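Take just one protein record:
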Amino acid sequence: MAKGKTRQKLKQTVKSHIPKDWLTEVRIFYRMLIETGKGISQAGLINIAIVTTMAAILTIFGCLFRSSLSFQTIVNDLGGTLQISAYLDDSADTKAVISRVKDIPHVKSVKFIPKDRSWNNLKKDIDVPDVENPLPDTLHVKVDVVNNLDDVLFKIKEINGVNDTSYAKDWVKKLQTLNKVSHTVTFVVVIFACLLTLIIINNTIQLVIQCRKEEIEIMRLMGVSNWYIKFPLVLQGAIYGLLGAIISIFPINAIQVYLFKLHDFFMIPPFVLAQPIVIFSVLAVGVMFSAGGSLICIKKHLRV
C-alpha cells in the first residue's frame, strides 16, 4: 500500500516537471473535436430528433420566461398607479401626518386633497343638497410596487390623525394572482425542461457509448486519460443543447412582438433588457443541462 502511494507520488512529481508543448495540447484538443464529430455521426437521424425536441422544450421555457418578465413589468407599473386613500380626522395635524406617511418604506408619493376641493368637485359632477361639507381631508398615497400595498396600508392605519383608509383591493388581488401564476408556471416549466433534457441526453449518450464501447475499452487499455474519453461526449451533449437553444430564439423573438402590443395597450414601456436576459438564459439552460446530462450518463455507464 505504501509502495503504491510512493509510486503514484513519484509519477505525479515526474509528470509535473515534464515541459508541456502547446502544440501538443492543441493537437489533443483537435482529436477531441474529431471524437465529438464521430459521436454525432454515429447517432445518425437521432440527432434531428434530439435537436428538435430540445428546441421545443427551450422554446416553451423561453416564451413563458419572456411573458413572465412582461407581466412582472406591467403588474409593477399598474400597481404604481394604484393609490391608497387615507381620510384624516378634522383635528389632525396635516403636515405631521404627511411627514410620517412619507417616512414609510415603499411610499412613492403623497398628495394632499383638501376637503373643500373634494366637495367642489363632487358638486360639479352631481347635484347635492346645500348642506355643510361632510367630506374629510384626504391623502392619496402611491406605492412603488403592488406587492407592498398591504404593508403600507397597515402602517398608515397606525398613524394618529388617520380616520380610515381604502384602496382597490379586488384589482390588486387580481394583479398579484396574475403575477404569481406567471412565476409558478415558468418555474414548473423550467423543472420539467431540465428533467426532460437530462433524460433525452442520457439516452443519446448511452447509445453513443454502446456504439463505441470497444473503441473506448481500447483507449482505456492504452492508458488514455479519463478526461480524453469524457470530453467528446460532454461536448456532444452541449452541442445538442446549443443548437436547440439557437433554434428556439426565433419563436421567442416572434412572441416578443405580441408582448410589445400588450405593453402599448397598457401604455407601459417594456423592460429593455428582457430579451437579452431571456436569450442568455435559454442558451445557458440548453448548454449547461445538456452537458450535465452527458456527464451524469458517462459516470453511470463508463465509470470513469
Observations:
- The CA atoms of residues 216 and 229 lie 7 Å apart.
- The mean pLDDT is 77.
- The radius of gyration is 32 Å.
- Residues 169-211 form the longest helix (43 residues).
